[in-house]
Design a protein that fits this description.
With 536 residues, the protein is α/β, with parallel strands linked by helices. The chain is built from 23 helices and ten strands. The strands form three sheets. Strands 2-3-4-1-5 form a five-stranded parallel beta sheet, covered by helices on one side.
Amino acid sequence: MSYQVLARKWRPRSFKDMVGQEPILRMLENALAQKRIHHAYLFTGTRGVGKTTLARIFAKCLNCETGITPTPCDQCPTCLAIDAGQFLDLLEIDAASRTKVEDTRELLEGIPYPPSQGRYKVYLLDEIHMLSNHSCNALLKTLEEPPEHVKFLFATTDPKRLPITILSRCLQFHLKRILPEQIAQRLAAICATENITHEFSALQKLAKSADGSMRDALSLLDQAIAYGDGTVNTSQVHTMLGSTALDDLLPLIEALAAQDGKQLFLCVQQLAERVPNFQQVLEELIDCFHRMALAQCLPDRLAADDSLAPLVKRFSAQDLQLYYQIALLGRRDLLLSPHPQQGFEMTMLRMLAFTPIAKTAAQPVTAVTTTKTASVVAAVKEKTKEHIDNTPPHPQPSPAVVSVAAATTTAATLAIDWRDLLPKLNLSGMAYALASNCVLEKATDQHITLSLSIHHQPMLNDKLKERIKEALNHHFGHVLQLDIQVTQSELKTPVKQQQQEFDQRLAGAKETVMQNPQIKKLVDMYDATVEVSILS
């Protein structure tokens, strides 16, 4: 007897054998139990998730000799014929090879005739999105009002290519990718039944490589059994897939945790000697960073015997987030690198070179803020002392009132650089133009005063003022009062500062150009003038 591949041998024969599609199975089982049968069903999803298999099982449920049922008997001649692919009233058509309108019309010619064996005549069209527009149009009328003895089951990996007129006439069920954990459990059950010696970690690797497809996972399992001469172990699976084992990545991650560049690149050289796929190495690193980040948030996520468990505490949460992002970008840019190893090494260098901002910038900013606050408080206290010394005696307020007043005074002053603040307000159009032509006169936590030159007074109106006020409220997180005073004085506005800086850059660029001997020679020879432009 010839060998039957695992993907065909272990193809589900009933709903209970399906893996990972519980919501869809529940809807179909309830519909069959209540005899609420639609005339057209569309099953969508990526390859290998069970679209055609589900359609065959549904056809068996409709035609089982025990009656319409979600649990066919699998023993009657009809069930056995459907499983063997020999049931005359189940017409499986590969739409990818029969795309012409003539093929569709030939198919429709047999629809008026009643089924010869079963209860329903079932048309199963696989990859229906491959039909031409004319074929779809020919199918529309029959699909909308088919005879009672006809049911349509469609399967496709690309429903977006189907006309909306087809979609609107079908009940659509989207089959999701199967989780790696579910695939691994299924592979383990199959190996146990087939008496195949296996390691569960190897099956997990196969399940992950299948990318949500049960058929791909079974094909990989067949390949692994052949490669391992009847056994499936982790090291052989890694070799077969050309991937990197976790044990090979641990020295790399340890060197990264220790910020040891010499040891890190020694590990990279050791990886390069095995000629790996650096794209897969980065994918494995991304998975490691993800698992460690989850373990920091959920300590029970990693088992005690997991190789990554001792490394979790050696990275901060910020480091893991940064390394994860760098690895993602490195994987994207790897194809642009002249050599894959070079691209991988540059990704490792970025991990060594960059550190989260919170580590380096948070402390200095706090120190500067504290210093400024202390100076403001000291100045207020000095002013208060002078005022008290020069004021005749009068009834003193209670200590509580004095402390509240002092606290309010010290908290009121805000140190703001108006030019730096403008881009953070997210203003645009005339509101930004008005704000950039103003100068900050005074700022407290309740009130901000701006000055505007009389030359720009025509720009000022209540609507623009209100927009600037709303932007300030949103930035500071509370309601502020805004005053814009018109003045005769010349103001050094952000616009003027920017223009002066630009003029200085332009003059410097022109001076640099004029120092070039070749330029001087051309100017003298042709009595030319030099025009310099720079990006603002």
